[in-house]
Amino acid sequence: MKFCDSCMVPRIFFVVFFLVSGEGSSLSPALGSEPRLGFLSFSSLRGWTDDNQLEALRVFSSSCSHLVARIKKRPAVRTLWRRVCREAGAVPAVNAAARFFFEQNFRPYRVYSNRGKQGFFTGYYEPEVNGSLVPNNNFHVPIYRPPRDLVSLRGKKRPVNLSDILTSARRVGEHLFPYYTRQEIEQGALVGDALELVWLRDKVTAFFIHIQGSSRVRLADGRILRLSFAGKNGHPYTSVGNVIRKLYDIPPSDLTADVLRQWLKDRPHEADRLMWKNESFVFFNSALLRDFESGPIGAMNIALTARRSLAVDHKLYDLGIPVWIETQAPEVGTSFSSPFHHLMIAQDTGAAIVGPARGDIFFGSGEAAGHHASVIRYPGAFVILLPHGLPLPKWAGK
Asked: Domain-by-domain residue ranges, the chain?
């Protein structure tokens, strides 16, 4: 959706472990161990004039009000973004005009992570599965809404009995305790609390929906329910794919998302033990899907757009900024890949999306999108577009 323990607000996913060498824009890596930025010209961006900037502009414009609203404590930055957004709204619906808007209002900076390494990209998507609003013999694994005793620890002073790695806790009277783990929840910790939203066929299906952070659930009467990320139990995410690879000495290229899913389904007794290694558990909201073309809701609380929405490290970037990426996209069913050079908008985040040059590409909804998302794991150029006059990020060094 990378394991993406909810890429749609905090989101990770599993991908093929292909590593393909590739270069982005021609700029020598900065020296040193800290992340660095290197200024580029738009003419040095490979494929820039071939891209559809009008499509990217529409996605950027949809993010504008949310971008400005999130910048509360930096009035000068807020004013600058407000001006850029106002100009974006006046651009004619012509691709050349959209390209000119970005070239006139932004400066591109190539991002290098620690020790000059280039960017790294994975993909995620919105699964579609079958389900039921009532439990039965075919559908007996619940998806839960957030419990009433779940409280966020972000920005709050925590008691000494809670580890710093926890992001949520369980309130019992006036006291806070670590929330139930995945194992405890699946063994019945929430039974009787009337939190069930929908019932799925098996635990592995539910587990992968937790990883992606959203899903479409097709009901027997033809209606489709959309599950959207609504919170998590606060325990850290552990990649089950990595656990299995190490335990069973499986080559990275052999363990795709589809292979991992089938591997777990074929070994139900081992599957529970291994999935419980990931103590993180995701809770959802649900609503009937009426616009079948709309994407799931991301971290900015707006619908994601296939191949234009990008998940980034929200601790380093303001969500809503444009990001130019140069990487590869595999051609599903073949051993070939083709250039993926596109202007994306940072609209999402994820637990596994960490670092200044780390990007997770949203590929859309359904099976076809899942095939593309599951096999992308490539290096490439990560280029942020910053408005003229905006200070460089503090992490970027001198």
From this structure: 36-396
